[in-house]
Amino acid sequence: MSFLDTFNQLDWNEVKLSITSKTASDVEQALSASRLNHDQFLALISPAASPYLEQMAKKSLQLTRQRFGNTVQLYIPLYLSNKCTNICTYCGFSLGNKIRRKTLSMDELDAEIRAIKAHGFEHLLLVTGEAPGTVGMDYFRKVLPKLRMHFSHISMEVQPLDQKDYEELMSLGLDAVLVYQETYHRPTYNQVHLRGSKADFDYRLETADRLGKAGIDKIGIGALIGLEDWRTDAAMVAAHLDYLEKTYWRTRYSISFPRLRPCEGEMNPVSLISDRQLVQLICAYRLFKPEAELSLSTRESARFRDNVLPLGITTMSAFSSTQPGGYVNDEFLEHTALEQFAIDDNRRPEQVADAIRSKGLEAVWKDWDNCYSH
Amino acid sequence: MTTEKTRMLKIADKTFNSRLFTGTGKFQNRQTMADAIIASDSELVTMALKRVDLNSQDDDILEPLLQQPTINLLPNTSGARDAKEAVYAAQLAREALQTNWLKLEIHPDPKYLLPDPIETLKACEELTQQGFIVLPYIHADPVLCKHLEEAGAAAVMPLGSPIGSNLGLKTREFLQIIIEQTKVPVVVDAGIGSPSDAALAMELGADAVLVNTAIAVSPNPVAMAIAFKEAVNAGRRAYEAGLGSRSLEAQASSPLTAFLDEF
């Protein structure tokens, strides 16, 4: 059994119709519930909930502060490689894009570690394109023990792996894996993933199950907003989370809601989401799962991030470079030839921390310790 | 007769004037945390090991607290999912922070953060043998408390309701059984959302309470810390004074059997 069995029983169009047919009464009932079920979540992401945004925001803020306190966790992505064997129509790393490809050598990795540590980060997210021949298990076996010596918490956002590989990486110091389905709409998924192993929808969908069985501490899921109807994709993310929480009850979960950003070979978003709707989505996730970590990346503007972070966000990246080797040169923002996508919030770490403090919150740099990593 | 001396709380080899224990998490900044803890008069302050930089002797979370001579640090193992992780975390904490006091927390369930009784007992047995002063965070389970007592726990810390829930003493009846039959101090931990919850725990006979979220997340943490301090003191005094019994029926001033005294 895996989420695939549950997923195959969900009909995209029926879920979509269920969302659009929600009424004000459904929204009010969801807002008064102490624990929301999936149907009540659908009410909160529906068009009918739009007039209730302020109420949702107030409740979301209160739940977030109660659960996570007055704190926001900071992390930084480290791009190990932009090599990729997939053709994905929305991604700058896509095989067909004429960008310079680079994979960090161990010396270059050392230099990146020094540059990142100088900024105070303890939580690291490793990112690669999907090129198992170059950045596969052999590469990870070299990289992880080295990073483990320097960072308190290590997450990965790389190609889906087998359960035994995850177990091995955990033994080398891996704490968390983020794996976004991009879209849960199978026909669209097939249209945007033209070549490479990522085209296997089912294997990707079952990644969280393999991670749960491996006993990983944290799994991040989400959908890339822009590929398909964002409301229906969010409903699928919520169903996925519901299933995972009940099945792998020892694991923590985080949700991201990345919007498509300009990149090399960019595509036009199919489903636009406004700032107002993204706030609605964030608040709906918070009301649905008060204990889930909600993460906001530097894809979003500084203004949007600063204003939305008290409402439900618990985790933020800062000072991100989306290209391998991007931190060694302090002026990396000027050099974007290798990047996955263009970031929007270019502020330095201390500026982001100051902005967090100005909202009456504490920027947390360390909230994990090696002793909890297998 | 109750004296000031009997009002003091003794756990292992330490005596505390305050029966309000506090925590360091969830505050909006270090200064507010320090101000609130100092205002609470708390002498035992728990802190998550996972937030402390063990490589830095002058970690800035601890710095404001280390300056207070009356404050004792109680590192906790929050984040540990089994006995093995908790024991390892405890060893690191002892080495880095030079204290053998430990709040043992093992919660494999990240949703409600409910403690694992089996792993907690296992870790407690191991840690007491290694010389730790162990204060285990547990569900309000009277039998588990007896097992932990036998395993050498210095106190037991049953929950009032899930961590951070502010739901108060949902486990009240079981807390009463624990207080009645446990020989080590009972510290009611988790779920205490208001000073009245803390006062009630003390009236029931708890030896102390631990409060974090309700103070840290309050719009005015310092004022809330003072409110908790006063509530804990009031509850303890009421317990020591002896509360009157309760009854739904009025107690007649001329009882039915009064005639028996007339002869």
UniProtKB/TrEMBL annotation, chain A:
Question: CDD domains attached here?
Answer: Radical_SAM
Q: Name one Pfam family in it.
A: BATS
Query: What PANTHER family does the record point to?
Result: 2-IMINOACETATE SYNTHASE (PTHR43583)
A single Gene Ontology MF term assigned here is: iron ion binding
Q: Which cofactor does it need?
A: [4Fe-4S] cluster; [2Fe-2S] cluster
Does the record bear Iron in its keywords?
yes
Q: Name one GO biological process term.
A: thiamine biosynthetic process
Q: What is the designated name of this protein? A: Thiamine biosynthesis protein ThiH
Q: Which organism is it from?
A: Endozoicomonas montiporae
Its encoding gene is what? thiH
Keyword field contains Zinc: no
Matching InterPro entries, A to Z? Aldolase_TIM, BATS_dom, Elp3/MiaA/NifB-like_rSAM, rSAM, rSAM_sf, ThiH, ThiH/NoCL/HydG-like
Q: Where is the Radical SAM core domain?
A: 70-305
What are the alphabetically sorted keywords of the record?
4Fe-4S, Iron, Iron-sulfur, Metal-binding, S-adenosyl-L-methionine
Automatic annotation (TrEMBL), chain B:
Recorded metabolic or biological pathway in which this protein acts: Cofactor biosynthesis; thiamine diphosphate biosynthesis
Q: What is its EC number?
A: 2.8.1.10
Q: Which GO terms describe its cellular component?
A: cytoplasm
What keywords are assigned to this protein? Cytoplasm, Schiff base, Thiamine biosynthesis, Transferase
InterPro entries attached to this UniProt entry: Aldolase_TIM, Thiazole_synthase_ThiG, ThiG
Give start and end of each Thiazole synthase ThiG domain.
Answer: 10-255
Q: Where in the cell is it found?
A: Cytoplasm
> Would the keyword DNA-binding turn up in this protein's UniProt record?
no
Q: State the reactions this protein catalyses.
A: [ThiS sulfur-carrier protein]-C-terminal-Gly-aminoethanethioate + 2-iminoacetate + 1-deoxy-D-xylulose 5-phosphate = [ThiS sulfur-carrier protein]-C-terminal Gly-Gly + 2-[(2R,5Z)-2-carboxy-4-methylthiazol-5(2H)-ylidene]ethyl phosphate + 2 H2O + H(+)
Q: Which SUPFAM superfamilies match?
A: ThiG-like
The residues listed in the UniProt record as binding 1-deoxy-D-xylulose 5-phosphate, with positions renumbered to this chain, are: G164, A190, G191, N212, T213
Q: Where is the active site?
A: K103 (schiff-base intermediate with dxp)
Give the transmembrane region(s).
none
One function term, GO molecular function aspect: thiazole synthase activity
Looking up Pfam families in the UniProt record yields: ThiG
Per UniProt, subunit arrangement is: Homotetramer. Forms heterodimers with either ThiH or ThiS.
Q: Which family does it belong to?
A: Belongs to the ThiG family.
Function of the molecule: Catalyzes the rearrangement of 1-deoxy-D-xylulose 5-phosphate (DXP) to produce the thiazole phosphate moiety of thiamine. Sulfur is provided by the thiocarboxylate moiety of the carrier protein ThiS. In vitro, sulfur can be provided by H(2)S.
The record's section on HAMAP family has: ThiG
Name it.
Thiazole synthase
Q: Which species is this record about?
A: Endozoicomonas montiporae CL-33
| Gene name of the record | thiG
